Protein backbone atom coordinates (compact mmCIF):
# COMPACT_ATOMS: atom_id res chain seq x y z
CA UNK A 1 0.00 0.00 0.00
CA UNK A 2 1.29 3.44 -0.91
CA UNK A 3 0.92 6.15 1.77
CA UNK A 4 1.96 9.74 1.21
CA UNK A 5 1.79 12.70 3.59
CA UNK A 6 2.49 16.34 2.77
CA UNK A 7 2.10 19.25 5.19
CA UNK A 8 2.69 22.93 4.38
CA UNK A 9 2.07 25.98 6.55
CA UNK A 10 2.23 29.68 5.64
CA UNK A 11 4.52 32.11 7.44
CA UNK A 12 1.68 33.80 9.31
CA UNK A 13 0.31 30.42 10.39
CA UNK A 14 -3.08 31.38 8.93
CA UNK A 15 -3.56 28.39 6.66
CA UNK A 16 -2.14 24.97 6.11
CA UNK A 17 -2.52 21.99 3.85
CA UNK A 18 -2.46 18.39 4.99
CA UNK A 19 -2.55 15.70 2.35
CA UNK A 20 -2.46 11.95 2.42
CA UNK A 21 -3.33 9.26 -0.08
CA UNK A 22 -3.43 5.50 -0.12
CA UNK A 23 -4.16 3.33 -3.12
CA UNK A 24 -2.94 -0.16 -3.97
CA UNK A 25 -3.09 0.67 -7.68
CA UNK A 26 -1.04 3.86 -7.45
CA UNK A 27 -1.76 7.60 -7.59
CA UNK A 28 -4.35 9.16 -9.90
CA UNK A 29 -2.88 10.69 -13.04
CA UNK A 30 -1.58 14.19 -12.46
CA UNK A 31 -0.87 13.74 -8.74
CA UNK A 32 2.66 14.80 -7.84
CA UNK A 33 2.91 14.88 -4.05
CA UNK A 34 6.34 15.09 -2.36
CA UNK A 35 7.02 13.07 0.75
CA UNK A 36 7.60 15.13 3.86
CA UNK A 37 10.39 14.50 6.38
CA UNK A 38 9.94 11.73 8.93
CA UNK A 39 9.78 14.11 11.90
CA UNK A 40 6.89 15.99 10.31
CA UNK A 41 5.00 12.76 9.68
CA UNK A 42 5.37 11.96 13.40
CA UNK A 43 3.85 15.35 14.21
CA UNK A 44 0.76 14.54 12.17
CA UNK A 45 0.42 11.07 13.65
CA UNK A 46 0.89 12.15 17.27
CA UNK A 47 -1.83 14.81 17.30
CA UNK A 48 -4.56 12.16 17.31
CA UNK A 49 -6.02 13.09 13.94
CA UNK A 50 -7.16 9.97 12.06
CA UNK A 51 -5.04 9.52 8.97
CA UNK A 52 -4.74 7.25 5.98
CA UNK A 53 -5.20 3.63 6.97
CA UNK A 54 -7.09 4.49 10.17
CA UNK A 55 -10.72 3.61 10.77
CA UNK A 56 -12.94 6.62 10.09
CA UNK A 57 -14.72 7.75 13.27
CA UNK A 58 -18.39 6.91 13.02
CA UNK A 59 -20.95 9.66 13.55
CA UNK A 60 -24.63 10.46 13.31
CA UNK A 61 -25.75 13.94 12.22
CA UNK A 62 -28.90 15.70 11.07
CA UNK A 63 -28.82 15.93 7.29
CA UNK A 64 -30.62 17.61 4.43
CA UNK A 65 -31.04 15.45 1.30
CA UNK A 66 -32.85 17.01 -1.66
CA UNK A 67 -34.60 19.39 0.72
CA UNK A 68 -35.72 16.67 3.16
CA UNK A 69 -34.36 16.56 6.72
CA UNK A 70 -33.22 13.15 7.91
CA UNK A 71 -30.46 11.60 10.03
CA UNK A 72 -27.24 10.25 8.54
CA UNK A 73 -24.91 7.68 10.07
CA UNK A 74 -21.55 7.15 8.38
CA UNK A 75 -21.43 3.43 9.17
CA UNK A 76 -24.61 2.91 7.10
CA UNK A 77 -22.39 3.17 4.01
CA UNK A 78 -19.99 0.47 5.21
CA UNK A 79 -19.77 -2.38 2.73
CA UNK A 80 -21.93 -0.39 0.31
CA UNK A 81 -20.26 2.81 -0.90
CA UNK A 82 -17.09 4.85 -0.69
CA UNK A 83 -17.77 8.21 0.95
CA UNK A 84 -16.11 11.61 0.49
CA UNK A 85 -16.64 13.73 3.61
CA UNK A 86 -16.45 17.35 2.47
CA UNK A 87 -16.05 19.65 5.48
CA UNK A 88 -16.57 23.35 4.77
CA UNK A 89 -16.53 26.45 7.02
CA UNK A 90 -19.80 28.25 6.39
CA UNK A 91 -22.96 28.37 4.33
CA UNK A 92 -23.60 31.57 2.36
CA UNK A 93 -19.95 31.72 1.28
CA UNK A 94 -19.16 32.14 -2.42
CA UNK A 95 -16.48 29.45 -2.31
CA UNK A 96 -18.79 27.07 -0.45
CA UNK A 97 -21.56 27.67 -2.98
CA UNK A 98 -19.19 26.98 -5.88
CA UNK A 99 -18.07 23.79 -4.18
CA UNK A 100 -21.62 22.50 -3.59
CA UNK A 101 -22.70 23.35 -7.14
CA UNK A 102 -19.73 21.43 -8.54
CA UNK A 103 -20.73 18.37 -6.50
CA UNK A 104 -24.24 18.49 -7.94
CA UNK A 105 -22.97 18.97 -11.50
CA UNK A 106 -20.71 15.90 -11.18
CA UNK A 107 -23.20 13.81 -9.21
CA UNK A 108 -23.64 11.17 -11.91
CA UNK A 109 -19.88 10.55 -12.01
CA UNK A 110 -19.84 10.21 -8.23
CA UNK A 111 -22.70 7.68 -8.30
CA UNK A 112 -21.05 5.82 -11.19
CA UNK A 113 -18.02 5.37 -8.91
CA UNK A 114 -20.29 3.68 -6.34
CA UNK A 115 -19.68 6.59 -4.00
CA UNK A 116 -21.37 9.47 -2.19
CA UNK A 117 -20.24 12.95 -1.27
CA UNK A 118 -21.38 14.06 2.19
CA UNK A 119 -21.00 17.78 2.91
CA UNK A 120 -20.49 18.79 6.55
CA UNK A 121 -20.58 22.23 8.19
CA UNK A 122 -20.89 23.44 11.78
CA UNK A 123 -23.72 25.76 10.73
CA UNK A 124 -27.21 24.77 11.90
CA UNK A 125 -29.51 22.53 9.88
CA UNK A 126 -31.98 25.43 9.65
CA UNK A 127 -29.28 27.66 8.18
CA UNK A 128 -28.30 24.90 5.74
CA UNK A 129 -31.93 24.41 4.72
CA UNK A 130 -32.39 28.11 3.92
CA UNK A 131 -29.11 28.21 1.98
CA UNK A 132 -29.91 25.06 -0.01
CA UNK A 133 -33.27 26.53 -0.99
CA UNK A 134 -31.49 29.66 -2.21
CA UNK A 135 -28.78 28.01 -4.33
CA UNK A 136 -29.90 24.37 -4.76
CA UNK A 137 -31.50 21.96 -4.98
CA UNK A 138 -28.74 19.50 -4.08
CA UNK A 139 -29.30 15.76 -4.11
CA UNK A 140 -26.25 14.80 -2.02
CA UNK A 141 -26.36 14.80 1.81
CA UNK A 142 -25.62 18.08 3.60
CA UNK A 143 -24.93 17.48 7.30
CA UNK A 144 -25.03 19.90 10.22
CA UNK A 145 -22.32 19.47 12.87
CA UNK A 146 -23.94 22.20 14.95
CA UNK A 147 -24.69 20.31 18.18
CA UNK A 148 -22.74 19.20 20.07
CA UNK A 149 -21.00 22.02 18.26
CA UNK A 150 -18.25 20.86 15.91
CA UNK A 151 -17.95 17.45 17.58
CA UNK A 152 -17.52 15.51 14.34
CA UNK A 153 -15.20 18.13 12.85
CA UNK A 154 -13.05 17.95 15.98
CA UNK A 155 -12.87 14.15 15.85
CA UNK A 156 -11.59 14.41 12.29
CA UNK A 157 -9.09 17.11 13.23
CA UNK A 158 -10.63 19.88 11.12
CA UNK A 159 -12.31 22.10 13.74
CA UNK A 160 -10.77 25.56 14.06
CA UNK A 161 -10.11 26.12 17.75
CA UNK A 162 -8.84 29.73 17.72
CA UNK A 163 -9.04 32.99 15.80
CA UNK A 164 -11.95 34.90 14.35
CA UNK A 165 -13.47 31.77 12.80
CA UNK A 166 -13.06 29.52 15.85
CA UNK A 167 -15.79 26.90 16.00
CA UNK A 168 -16.00 26.48 12.23
CA UNK A 169 -14.70 23.60 10.17
CA UNK A 170 -11.67 23.87 7.98
CA UNK A 171 -12.32 23.25 4.32
CA UNK A 172 -11.20 19.65 4.04
CA UNK A 173 -11.94 16.39 2.27
CA UNK A 174 -11.64 12.96 3.89
CA UNK A 175 -12.39 9.93 1.71
CA UNK A 176 -13.53 6.72 3.40
CA UNK A 177 -13.63 3.44 1.52
CA UNK A 178 -16.29 0.74 1.78
CA UNK A 179 -14.41 -1.00 4.59
CA UNK A 180 -14.60 2.15 6.71
CA UNK A 181 -10.93 3.09 6.36
CA UNK A 182 -9.59 6.52 5.44
CA UNK A 183 -7.78 6.44 2.09
CA UNK A 184 -7.30 10.18 1.44
CA UNK A 185 -7.40 13.45 3.33
CA UNK A 186 -6.54 17.01 2.41
CA UNK A 187 -7.20 20.47 3.86
CA UNK A 188 -7.65 23.65 1.83
CA UNK A 189 -7.63 27.40 2.45
CA UNK A 190 -10.80 28.86 3.98
CA UNK A 191 -11.79 30.62 0.74
CA UNK A 192 -10.38 28.00 -1.60
CA UNK A 193 -12.77 25.85 -3.63
CA UNK A 194 -12.01 22.18 -2.99
CA UNK A 195 -11.93 20.79 -6.55
CA UNK A 196 -14.40 18.01 -7.26
CA UNK A 197 -12.02 16.57 -9.88
CA UNK A 198 -9.54 15.78 -7.10
CA UNK A 199 -12.22 13.79 -5.27
CA UNK A 200 -13.27 11.99 -8.44
CA UNK A 201 -9.68 11.06 -9.26
CA UNK A 202 -9.50 9.16 -5.96
CA UNK A 203 -13.01 7.70 -6.05
CA UNK A 204 -12.46 6.30 -9.53
CA UNK A 205 -9.31 4.50 -8.35
CA UNK A 206 -10.54 2.75 -5.22
The number of strands is: 9
Uncertain ranges: 1-25, 31-46
The order of strands across the largest sheet is 1-2-9-8-5-6-7-3-4
The tally of structural domains comes to 1
**Percent in strands:** 25-35%
For the largest beta-sheet, the strand count, sense and barrel status come to: 9 strands, mixed
Radius of gyration: 16 Å
- N- to C-terminal distance: 12 Å
CATH first level? Alpha Beta
What series of H and E elements makes up the topology? EEHEEEHHEHEHEEH
Helix proportion of residues, in percent? 10-25%
CATH 4th-level superfamily = Glutaredoxin
Q: What would you call the structural class? A: alpha+beta
Query: Tell me, what's the shape?
Result: globular
Q: What is the CATH topology classification name? A: Glutaredoxin
Mean pLDDT: 84
CATH architecture classification: 3-Layer(aba) Sandwich
Architecture overview:
There is one protein chain. By secondary structure, the chain is an alpha+beta fold. The chain is built from six helices and nine strands, in the order E-E-H-E-E-E-H-H-E-H-E-H-E-E-H. A nine-stranded mixed β-sheet has the order 1-2-9-8-5-6-7-3-4. A hairpin with a 2-residue loop joins strand 3 and strand 4. The radius of gyration is 16 Å and the shape is globular.
Amino acid sequence: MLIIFSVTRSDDDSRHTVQSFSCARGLPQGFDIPLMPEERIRGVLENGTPGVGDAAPDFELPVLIAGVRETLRLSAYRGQKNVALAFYPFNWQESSAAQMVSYQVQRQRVLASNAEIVAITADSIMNTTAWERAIGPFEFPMCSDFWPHGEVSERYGVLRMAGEVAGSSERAVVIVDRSGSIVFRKSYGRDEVAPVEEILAVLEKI
